[in-house]
Amino acid sequence: MAVTSSAPAAVGVKNRENGVQKVRTTDPVKNRWYKPKSIVARIVLWVVLVGFAILFMYPFAWLLAASLKPRGQVFDNALIPDTVLFSNYLEVWDQLPLISWMFNSIAIAFLAAGAVAISSSVVAFGFAYFKFPGRNLLFGLVLATMMLPGAVTLIPQYLIWKQIGLLGTWVPLWGMNLFGSAFYIFLQRQFFLGLPRELFEAARIDGCTYWGMFRRIAMPLSIPSFIIVFIFELQASWNNLQAALIYLNAGSVEDFTAPLGIAYAMTKYSPSAGGQGDYQYVMVASLVITLPMLLIFAFGQRFFIEGIATQGRKG
Q: What's the CATH class of domain 93-309?
């Protein structure tokens, strides 16, 4: 007679006594080091979590409070303003071309994210599926490009776009993503390696092309990793001040992206540059351009967490 445990997460240790098989089970959930075992430990854990939550939320709370203050109280570090001016959120649209900045940033961010997600997925599928001599060496060279500092390729890239004649346009801000990214190629390749190869072999027997396998099998099964790459690049492109400063600074103010526009507003309202110190409009603009990223993460966090959890399962 066999005695077994019905706990699905249990780990069995078998031994026999008098011909009867016994199974000693241990629950891995109960043995986790971070699970508090006493009331004091739980209180300490909650205090630590709340403390870190407050620490990370403080900059956002300060920004919100500063956006509601009058001109002379923006930097007084008070989280509860003495005078609340909701009119700042109405006046900022007349003070700054915020709509144009946000539209430019949204368009460039989606172009950059879509380009790098698709191109990196194609290259990653090639490294994951095809077996050819020197594949690992070539993949290692691709990963080695991540060791190059951005300052090394900054001037050559600028000269290339200048020679092509695309300075002052959006193209340099997203065009380089058409050639993929080593980091995103690595993430996508690890996900593709986790897919059963039998699916692709069966598709080949049925006459499916390589592009067909990528479009009909690989991409539908790798939606979580595709979305995580898309969100990563969307956030990176949205906050990319350096590239906008280099390639768009010669254009009109309406052509600026949101980060470049915020930098322009800081200079515009600076007393040293002849401004009146109306930094409350800068705070309002900073808060407004932060909201899209918060909304995107809120709606995509399920795919975000799933994509992170499923990366790097196979090497």
A: mainly alpha
